[in-house]
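Backbone geometry:
***
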Amino acid sequence: MTRLQEEIDNIIRERSVEDRTEITKIIENALHFIEYQNGVRRGKYSKVLNLLSDYLDSIYKVGEERTEKLFVEDFLQSICDDTGRAMGQREVEIVQDFVKGVAITANRSALEKVCGGILKNAVENTPDQGRIEVTAKIEGDQMVISFRDFGTGITAENQRLVLTGFFHTQDTDHYSTKAPYDFNAGGSGADLLRAKVFSERYGFGIDFESTRCSYLPEDIDECPGRISLCKFIGNRSDCFASGTIFSLRIPLNKGVEAVY
C-alpha cells in the first residue's frame, strides 16, 4: 500500500493541474477495476483488492444520495463539538463565528465528511496551545465556510499538490505512528482528497491559501508540537503568523437560502 501511494505521488507530481481535475471519474474507474479483478483473480490478491476497495469507498461513498435543509450555525456547531470530543487531551482552541438564520440544502453525510475531515486536518497541523477559526458567512452569491488554522503552514513547493489526492506533506517515514487528531498525526491525504471528490460531485468550490512558518521553511523542519516549547517565539500570539485556510464556496443557486 505504501509503495502504491508513493507511485501515485510520483505520477501526480509530473502531471498538469488540468489533467488532475477529474478525480471522481478516476476513483469510479478504479472501483470498477477492483471489482472486476476480484471477480477474476481470487486467492492471494483478494485481501489487497478488498483493502483498496474499502479505502476508496471511504473517500467516495456517502450512503443515501438525498439532500435536506441544514441550518448552518447548528450544523457547524455539531461538527466543532464532535471534533472537540474526538481530539481528547489536545489543547487546541476552536473559535466559531457563524452567520445566523441561514440554511443550506445539501447532502448531510457528504458535507459532514468534508467539514469534519478539513477540521481534523487543521487540528493535526496545529500545535497545542494553538488556535483554529471556523467561520460561515455569505459573500456575494456564495455561502463561504472557512477553516483557518494557525499551524506550521504548507511549503510553497507542496501547495500546488495538496488537493490532488493521495498527497502528504511529510516523508512517509513520519506517518502511521500517531493517533488521529495528534499533532502531525499524518496520513495519506484522504480527508482532503475526499473534499475534492465531493466538491466535484456536488458542485461547490474548494480552495486554500497557506503561509509557512518562517522558522520552519522546509518540510524536514519540525515544530515541537506545543507553542510554549518553541525556541523561536516569546508568547502565544507570535505563533499566529502562519497557517492555512481551507474554504468551501457554495453558490447561492446550489442550495443556500435565508430563513430569517
In short: The CA atoms of residues 193 and 209 lie 16 Å apart. Helices lie at 2-13, 23-40, 46-60, 72-86, 108-124, 156-159, 190-202. Confidence is low (pLDDT under 50) at residues 11-21, 166-177. Strands lie at 68-71, 92-98, 102-106, 130-139, 142-149, 205-211, 243-251, 256-258.
